[in-house]
Amino acid sequence: MPATPQRSDYIAAQVQAVHQNLRLLETLVTSPIGLTTDLQTLRESIPADGAAAERDRAAFQELARDRSARALGLTARRVVAETIELLGKLTPSDVGGLPPEWTGRAAKVLDRIEARLGAEVRQAKAAELRGLYVIVDPEQTTGRPVQEVAAAALDGGAVALQLRDKKSDKGAMLRTASALATLCAAKHALFFANDHADIARLSHADGLHVGQTDLPVAAARQVLAPDQLVGTSNALFEEALTSESGTADYVAVGRIYDTASKSNTRPAGLETLRRVKRAVGVPVVAIGGINESNVVPVVQAGADAVCVVSAVCGARDPKAAAARLSELISGSRPRG
To answer: What's the gap between Cα 91 and its chain centre?
Structure first.
């Protein structure tokens, strides 16, 4: 049965949208060369309005100049998902009589693009992990709402927050995590969920933090979006090396000092921190018993970020405590 004019217009619009999305992805994906070639070949195999494509090119180049981690991740995830959805509505005859296997091949290329852009976004996000990293735990906030303490920590200069909640049910945890993710996004800070990959994924967190007995990094990545980070806790030098080789985006080393905020932690110390920093290529986060009185040697030992709990959450004025710690961290870094 021949297509009606309305159907023909609909098909043309869908095909043009696929072409536009592939053009946008071309501006975002700059390597490896094999992937960029596959993407270009895919786009060129689709018939499209030449004048519209030329207009799109300039607009997409402008958009692609913003390669911030958050903008790139959101753009890539949206465009890939939308393109796969559009392709699912088209038949081979709709796109110029392409062979039946074309759609499947296109989906594979898009999967590779999503993975590539996800890795690029994670690298960019991880580079932002430099400064004060605050764990907010409802058991450590001296009765104050978690969101209140979190907002104060961010106002004081924290570059990252992590929600660690060992007692709430999943529904309440998700509501809190979603609120903190929104708060961090507004402050251009990173937000991590602790332990629960599903909470991290559903709350649109920047990432997940896991311990040695939690989900392995590879398993967590099967739940998370490609652009979400995974960080790990490590007490031993060998654990940190294993974490990095297992594609962790950052490694946390601790405990550095004795701490009362979490039981059954294992000692690591400053020497382990120094060894890890020399050996790995991902950001290193120091954690465990760190406060204003002992943070300087931690930074001097090589920590990219310093993670605290009670030093901010238990402070009478969390904003002021975070500000003092942030200043000490910044002032202790080697110059030049």
So the answer is: 35
| pTM, 2 dp | 0.83
DSSP per position, 305-332: EEEESHHHHTSSSHHHHHHHHHHHHHHH
User: Whole-angstrom Cα distance, residue 132 to residue 190?
Assistant: 11
Beta strands in 96-248 (DSSP E): 131-136, 160-163, 190-194, 207-210, 229-234
Cβ atoms of 155 and 261 closer than 8 Å: no
Q: From CA 68, how far away is CA 49, in angstroms rounded?
A: 31
3-state secondary structure of 287: strand
Q: Tokens standing for 113?
A: 């693009």
What Rg do the C-alpha atoms of the chain give, in angstroms?
23
CA gap 26, 14 in Å, rounded: 19
Count other C-beta atoms under 10 Å from residue 281's C-beta: 6
Q: What are phi and psi of 26, to 5 degrees?
A: -60, -35
Closest CA to 115 of 63, 73, 150, 172: 73
C-alpha span between 298 and 287 (Å, rounded) = 9
Phi, psi values for residue 139, rounded to 5°: -85, -5
Residue numbers annotated as active site = 164, 233, 262
Largest CA distance in the chain: 79
Residue ranges of domains in the chain, CATH in brackets: 5-123 (no CATH), 129-332 (3.20.20.70)
pLDDT given for residue 1 in this prediction? 44
Would you say 313 and 329 are in contact if contact means Cβ atoms under 8 Å apart? no
Helix (H, G, I), strand (E, B) or coil at 173: helix
pLDDT tens digits for range 95-136 = 665 676 777 788 888 888 888 888 888 998 999 999 999 999
